[in-house]
User: Fold this.
Amino acid sequence: MSAVWTRGKGLDRWASILGAVLAWEAVSRTGILPVAFFPPPSRILLALARELGTGEIPRHTLTTLAAYARGLALALAIGVPWGVLLGRVPVIRRASAVLIEMLRPIPSVAIIPVAILLLGIGEEMRFAVACYAAVWPLLFNTMYGVYNADPVLVDSARIFGFARWEVLWRVVVPSALPFITTGVRVSSAVALIVTVTAEMVAGTGGLGFYVKATELGGRVPEMYGGILLLGILGSLLNHLLRVAESQVLGWYRGAMGRAEEVGG
Amino acid sequence: MRMPQGWRGVRAVNWVGWLVFLAFLGLWEVLSRRSGSLYFPPVTRIVETFVAVWRAQNLSAHVAPSLVRMGEGYGAAALVGTVLGIAMGHWRRLDRFVEPLVEFFRAVPPPALIPFALLTMGIGDASKVFVIAFSSLWPILLNARDGVRNVDQVMIETARMFGHSPREVVTVVVAPATMPQLFAGLRTSLGVAFITMVIAEMVGSTNGLGYFILNAQRLFAVPEMYAGILLLGLLGYLVNGAFERVEGRILGWHRRFRAVQP
Assistant:
């Protein structure tokens, strides 16, 4: 249904974005909105291009992406196995439920000051904070997915003599895959938000730091350029993960379809 | 989807879980007292500080502004998101025009908007309220839109056939059927609003809980910092609980309805 919905929308999409940009340009150039605060998009794009040329923006972008990507990767390595454990082993689940539920309502950005105390204001701090924030969605999604794995499939695999870890690896984890990929997307968004926040609060670099610094320095077009870039980065990452997800789940749906056919 | 057993929704008290939690606190206490670490003060000290810090003066100086900002921003987002979302679900032309912009704005990390808000609206409350409203708008808007779009056509046609006026169809069928998904959006946005409140106060404010925590860290007032984080967790818990109550009251009919449906 959503495929039908998105078809033939490519042109509309660009038309509406172009319309909004032109409207802004007009409103800014005619002085309806103060130019000092709302520079026309043409000037923003020029500023962005200039900063791309000087290497200023690429450097900050890489800094942000590094903290984000390392944080997300480590969160995957921690969150998924832990989630599997919580989903499959009732004792561990019961034992850690209260502790986790106590930590969960604390917004992950609140951990930034603690991280600054422990790790300083450098890249390690931002990496750690991104990782902390990204672990939770992965943990919970994996736990739900694993816990809800079809018991018939699990038992069948056992009956056919698969070892415990094989059941886990071949049946339980694959059937939790849609949950895990959802967790990855949520975690990715969270990791980016927290990285940018940490850069603003105590950054020495990164796009968050850049946007804050240009605002304080009164370099308004540059500030908008930075925000624009963060928006593009956000949608690009989201889009990439969606494509990756449909690749992974395409395989998954195929396998599930076959399983159903075989099952009759 | 079943909630994993031993998590929530189980009436029996999870003794093992509480034991582990208390053991964790005990271990923290002992290790902290032994090492005399500056960064991990003993739990008892944090609790003492919590009690000492969160009295009337600080509550009105930091907690009240936070909650007011969040309430205003979230309220505005709920209002605009619901109205615009329903309109987008109803008129597809509007949806086609607005959707690409929504997709872009939604992808901008909320903290990135704070410098923009500070620049154009100053350091006062308006900038924070704007950022909170802006970031929590999208889940509400998209869920309201999808909710309207996914209303069962058979139900609408049935209501029409039974002679309900278009207006009645909206109030009796469309609005209640949209409600569950709208609430899903409202729930997501509540978390977003809460986090954005903290972020906005950390980056550009001179009061509020976010500011309090970060400032305590800068002053090396470590127990105060933990007391702030603790209160933040408590507030998160309370806000969520309040939302669940309201949701239960409004959506109770839906759950009961679902329960008897084949």
Observations:
- Chain B touches chain A through 59 residues (CB under 8 Å).
- Chain B has a mean pLDDT of 89.
- Chain B has two domains: 1-39, 41-260.
- Residues 222-260 of chain B form the longest helix (39 residues).
